[in-house]
Design brief:
By secondary structure, this protein is α+β, with helices and mostly antiparallel strands. It has five helices and ten strands; from the N terminus they run βββαβββββααβαβα. The protein has a single domain, classed as RNA polymerase II/Efflux pump adaptor protein, barrel-sandwich hybrid domain (OB fold (Dihydrolipoamide Acetyltransferase, E2P)).
């Protein structure tokens, strides 16, 4: 697992405490797992994602990641409808490890409102949160 100093926490993204990142463009929110999550999970071997059109709820699981260590839920940072799924992950789940913010994105969600997105942690607050987790190891 990466040390805190090695983690890539992007300033232009928002984060959940369950380690999903979110980037908003209009009402569409792109979601993936962050560098901390992929590092903690280890080698991702399978990604389960919802179908386009699926309804998702903020804080609820919409899929899962399976690694050589464990299976972990993917939680939606916003409520809405899935408009796009990263089909490349079916054949190349390792993209979550090698490129969590670019090629390893999970879904795009048409968000029902902006309040849930606005409540996510900004990069500085997320970095402080991760430091508390790092210190507990």
């Amino acid at each position: 697992m990466k040390t805190f100093e090695e983690l890539d926490i992007r300033k232009d993204l928002s984060y959940s405490k369950t380690h999903e990142w979110a980037k908003k463009a209009g009402s569409v929110v792109c979601v993936g797992v962050d560098d901390y999550a992929q590092s903690a999970l280890g080698d991702i071997v399978y990604v389960e994602l919802p179908s386009v059109g699926a309804a998702v709820n903020a804080g609820a699981a919409f899929g899962s990641l399976e690694s050589t260590k464990a299976v972990s839920d993917l939680n939606s940072p916003v409520t809405g409808k899935v408009t796009k799924v990263n089909d490349a992950l079916a054949d190349a789940p390792e993209l979550v490890n090698s490129s969590p913010y670019e090629e390893g994105w999970m879904v795009e969600i048409e968000a029902e409102g902006g309040a849930e997105f606005d409540a996510l942690l900004k990069s500085d607050a997320y970095a402080e949160y991760v430091k508390t987790l790092d210190a507990s190891h």
